Every structure is written in C-alpha cells, then in structure tokens.
Amino acid sequence: MRFRACIALLLFLSACASSTPPSHARGRRSPRLANLQRAAKLPWTDGGHCVVREASQAWPVLVERCYPKLDHDRVEFHDTTGRCAVASAGAAAVGLGFCVLAAPEIVVGAVIVLGVVVVAAAIKEELDAYELRHPYPEEAGASRDTRVASREAEAQRPPRQKPEPAGQDWLPPAPPDSLERERRPECRPVPVRHLGGNDPHNDCADSIPNNSFPGWDVLVNGKNFDGLVLATRSLWEVKTDNFDTYPPDLRRIVLDDQVPKMQSERELARACGFDFKVAVRSAAHKAALLKRDSALRVVVMNWC
Known about the structure:
By secondary structure, the chain is of the alpha/beta class. The chain has two domains: 2-122, no CATH class; 178-300, Trna Endonuclease, Chain: A, domain 1 (3-Layer(aba) Sandwich), CATH 3.40.1350. Helices cover 44% and strands 11% of the residues. It contains 13 helices and nine strands. Strand 4 and strand 5 (223-225) form a beta hairpin.
C-alpha cells in the first residue's frame, strides 16, 4: 500500500509540475520523447527495452516498471530536497533511489551516474526512428542532441584490444560507403501512408518483427517499401498471396510478375546501402521464388 501511495503521490507531483509549462516549451516534445531522452542519460542492464516499452506511460510509472532494469552499481541517489524522507513514509520499503528517480524533476546532485553513459541500444534506435517520423523541427534537434551525446560518449571509451565477434552471422555487412549513400536525399527513409486499402496486407506489414515504422510504408530511393528494420538496415516487402491454392498456370503468372519486381526493389535498396527481404505466407511460395532467383532473401511469415 505504501508503495502504491508513493507512486500516486509522484504522479500527482508530476501533474502539478507539468500543468503550466512555459510558453516557449508548449507543444515542443511529446511525453514519450521526453521520457526517452530522460532515460537515455541512465545506464540500463537490458539495453533499454523496458524503457522503450513503457515510454508512453507517465515518468513515475515508467520508473516503477523499469527500476529493476537500472544498473544500480553505477548510480548513486541523494535526497537533496528531503522530499522522499518527508513525503513518502514508505521510502524505506520503496527505496530511496526509486523515490528520487521517479520525482517529476531531477534536482541537480540527486542522481549521480558513475562513468560514461552510452545511450542504450533500444533507446537510441527509438530516438533515431522518432527523428525520421516526427513532424516538428524542435523535436529533431532534441533527439539529435541525444544521439550526438551518445557518439561523444562512445568516442571517450578506451579502444578494445581485440575486436569482438558480432555473433550475428545472419546480418549483412554494411557496405563501406553506405553512410555516404545515406546522405543522398533519396536514400533517407521517409515514413509515408500505406498505399491502397488492403488492410490484411498492411496488418502483416506492420507486424514485421522490430518494424521501426508500424502503420506506415517507408519511401526509399523512389520506392514505397512495406517495412524497415533500422537495427538490421533491412527493407521489407510482404506478399500475402495464397500461393498454395493457385493452379500451376496462375502460379507461373504470379512468379513472372513478382520476381522481376523483387529484383528491381532489391537493387533500389542496395543502392542506398540497405538489405532487402521478402516475407511470404508459405514454404511453397518461398521455394518457388528461390527457384527463380536463389539470391533473394525470403522468409515465411510466422507472425501473420
């Protein structure tokens, strides 16, 4: 009960603190973005996945759910205002650190992080994705500032003695000139509305694992792709044909149409430094595509 009472109190304080923001700050940042940027300054043991999952909640709720994932060995908490000792009779049960961190604002000196913080991978990916789809320049600057801080922190790390294996052989190696190609305007991914009105197809596309822009197509190099996974630099196309039910002649017609398009889409993606993958509904459809072009990267959807 005391734990929930502390959460309720912190939520109340948070509402009071944010009820009358200064005029220059109104409408600048969404609560989700603000939470991501706030959490980016802390060390997390799970790569930031809990924060990304809970970022749309109020900050005290996010802290309540993700506090166990914080790297407590690298964080010191100081109740500089006395609020946690006075306002929370259950501070001992809740934990002083939790109470201090969940406060609507972090007082200078209240939270001290030991060592350099590199933005957790999941949080950084979410901030990168946010910058691509946000509508306001102010938010782009705020997100970009966090990413620059991440790069500066990474640069301060001592060099490794030996390169560590990635352990992900299935990831395509990034071409050495991919960053240069991304500077081309046509190679910058832009979220756009789904084409057409095929809701079942769009639902399958939105459910691509780790899709960075569910609910949107992604325009790259003049082509609307069904999905983009930023973490693996992969552009996706989804085919929802009931290929197994087609007679042989119709299968041939479908393949005659699909394979040249996929080959063209693959080249458009590669020209901008992206991998290209195709998702289909059945193993038979996958086998038929690979028989036509064994270099295509085709997976059978187990999510749709």
